[in-house]
Amino acid sequence: MEVDDLFQVGDSIVYPMHGAGTIKAIEEREIAGKKQQYYVIKMLTSNMQVMIPTGKIVSSNIRPVTDIIALKHLLYIFQHGESDGLLPWKQRFKVNTDKIKTGKIQEGAEVVRDLMRMKKEKELNTSEKKMLDNAHEFLISELRLIKGITENQIKSFC
Fold first, then answer.
1. Which residues form the CarD-like/TRCF RNAP-interacting domain (predicted)?
2. E strands within 6-82?
3. Is the pTM above the cut of 0.85?
């Protein structure tokens, strides 16, 4: 698959476990004696730059930012979806980690929703507090890149 078929400079993307970013360049670099093309991605949440070989972009689960049409469905799930609060915390932590690793906005929104609901009922443990903070930061970073989203729609995820 050609680089041109995937992403272009200026595209907004989501990198699982890292959040949203923007492709700043496609550069050829020689690393460890091997020349290859890399996507240079500026991550929004951590203010860092990531380089990913173009040949590994598909296996990294990097995807385009969600569009405004999918946002309506996401809002409904966020506000009305069911939470499974009966799992023991270790199992819940694993399920939530697996959801975040998918990089899918819906899965990340479910983690945020469920942990926010739990937080209203009881104190979260340190691991889940950190997970909630990270998942929420990743979610908001993607929402801010969706073309046509309003500030009120973003706030409905807070």
1. 6-116
2. 12-15, 19-31, 34-43, 49-53, 63-64
3. no
- Region of 17 (left: φ > 0; alpha: ψ -120 to 50; beta: rest) is left
| pLDDT tens per residue, range 102-153 | 888 999 999 999 999 999 988 999 999 999 999 999 898 898 888 888 888 8
Amino acid in position 99 = K
**Mind listing the domains of the chain with CATH numbers?**
11-64 (2.40.10.170), 68-156 (1.20.58.1290)
pLDDT score recorded for residue 154: 82
For helices 105-121 and 126-143, give the axis angle rounded to 10 degrees.
140
pLDDT over threshold 60, residue 59: yes
Which SS3 state, helix, strand or coil, does residue 35 take? strand
The two three-digit tokens of residue 18, written as one number: 């890292």
